[in-house]
Design goal:
EC 2.4.1.-, UDP_glycos_trans_CS, UDP-glucosyltransferase activity
């Protein structure tokens, strides 16, 4: 077996929220003279669709319908690769449980990668240590060592709906699944930066006792290089995964026709969303609001999702068919040109970077959250599962650049909650000022603290390599 060279493996999990940050991490490591290899399931995306990548690709067959057998085969393929070729280090998404033991078998140091933020990981760790599974309605419980405003509440115990895909993070009294996953790692890497999450990064470093590197937000290079106030064209960054009923040019033309800061952008990502009962409440709230809006609706919206698939059920009001899910067919005639309803893929980076966009009603997935923060767009948070709940707390309670879309004791989100949230968000000048102040911190591009962290990681690996020689 060869001695460790200058190659770093980056192993990604399923889903664009994992893949795209890993691609950007490869680019950043390559810029520091490392050879990088992106390890991914062969059915995730064809390598030809990875634009502006610098990494080599190592693809393994991992089929969703037979994960155990496929992961075993992928493990054998990786073993064969490592028999003759040993990388300097492997950065492994902690969700890829099968990969780490193989690297450790060949004495390849492993760094555990979190593609979400440090606030979410801190809250999961702190809630577990505090055994906070017995919260009563209206009770607020702070976590020792974390900022006072970021507390656990009874609503955090609510199980995710079937429409949001189920699953998600651990209950507050349960051990986070990433705790055993990081055992044996030489350090932790987070898709965030000190400018946004410094106290949470410090907390994790103290609690876990491993080096922590914040190397994000891992967004496309074009995002950071685009001058303030200029538009980011999604099509130049990533190949669309789905069809759309509007082109980028048509979206720009519509936004150009609206006053500065007047448009509410509504999108819940591709893997989660409100329930079929909540969608009509949202449509009614947008109808009664006076603000122009862009609403992105995915096929199958409102339908239960299990492991990425839909469960059969009878159509409800507003649903055109079982396959299509919810769609507000009658909304267009009621609001006229005040709306742009996009079905399928939407140019999110373009919309968030347009000066007419003044607010974002979001599920608070981590990529969407940092894309909005970096462009100074306040957020109306509608989290549904997992780290989204804690990302929303970061936005609302710590950074104070948004509001929640529902009350603490709400079970489902109602029209009244949404309408009040929209009006508060779009009219709050102080929130806009705070969001703009954070945006200014990134005016020179990619986070300065994350550049320093990547340099510190390089120095760490250099010392480790010298110790092995």
């Amino acid at each position: 077996m060869t001695q460790p060279g200058n190659e770093i493996f980056v192993v990604t999990s399923l889903g664009s929220g994992h893949l795209f940050p890993c691609i950007e991490l490869c680019n950043l490591l390559s810029s520091r003279n490392y050879q990088t290899t992106l390890v991914l399931p062969s059915n995730l995306l064809p390598p030809s669709s990875f634009r502006h990548r610098t990494a080599s690709i190592a693809a393994f067959d991992i089929e969703p319908h037979s994960p155990t057998q496929a992961q075993h085969q992928a493990g054998l393929d990786l073993l064969a690769h490592l028999e003759a070729h040993r990388p300097l280090c492997a950065v492994v998404d902690f969700q890829v449980g099968w990969a780490k033991p193989i690297f450790l078998k060949f004495d390849v140091p492993v760094v555990s990668l979190f593609t979400f933020g440090a606030c979410a990981a801190s809250m999961e760790w702190g809630a577990w240590k505090a055994a906070a599974g017995d919260l009563n309605s209206g009770e607020v419980r702070p976590i020792p060592g974390l900022p006072e405003g970021v507390c656990l509440t009874h609503r955090d115990l609510k199980p995710p709906s079937a429409a949001s895909g189920g699953g998600g993070g651990p209950k507050p009294s349960h051990r986070p699944p990433w705790v055993p996953a990081i055992e044996g790692s030489i350090g932790l890497m987070f898709n965030t930066c000190e400018e946004l999450e410094s106290p949470f990064l410090e907390y994790l470093c103290r609690q876990i006792g491993l080096p922590v590197w914040a190397v994000g937000p891992l967004l496309p290079e074009q995002y950071w290089e685009s001058p303030s106030g200029s538009l980011i064209r999604d099509g130049a960054v990533r190949e669309p995964k789905r069809e759309s009923n509007y082109t980028e040019v048509e979206v720009i033309q519509w936004l150009d026709s609206k006053p500065r800061g007047s448009v509410l952008y509504v999108s819940f990502g591709s893997e989660t969303g409100p329930t079929i009962e909540e969608y009509p409440e949202l449509a009614s709230a947008l109808q009664d609001s006076t603000h122009p809006f862009i609403w992105v609706i995915q096929p199958g919206s409102g339908l239960p999702k299990l492991f990425g698939s839909r469960c059969p059920r009878q159509p409800s009001s507003g649903m055109s068919s079982l396959e299509d899910g919810y769609f507000p067919h009658d909304l267009a005639s009621k609001v006229g040109d005040r709306k742009l309803i996009i079905r399928g893929w939407a140019p999110q980076l373009l919309i968030l970077s347009h000066p007419s966009t003044g607010g974002f009603l979001s599920h608070c997935g981590w990529n969407s959250t940092v894309e909005a923060i970096g462009r100074g767009v306040p957020i109306l948070a509608w989290p549904m599962r997992g780290d989204q709940i804690y990302n929303a707390k970061l936005v609302v309670n710590h950074l104070k650049i948004g509001y929640m879309a529902f009350g603490e004791d709400s079970s489902d989100v109602a029209k009244k909650d949404i309408l009040e949230g929209v009006e508060r968000l779009m009219s709050d000048r102080e929130i806009r000022k705070r969001a703009e102040a954070i945006r200014v911190e990134f005016e020179c591009g990619f986070s300065a603290s994350s550049r320093a962290a990547l340099d510190a990681f390089r120095d760490f690996l250099t010392k480790k390599k010298l110790n092995l020689e």
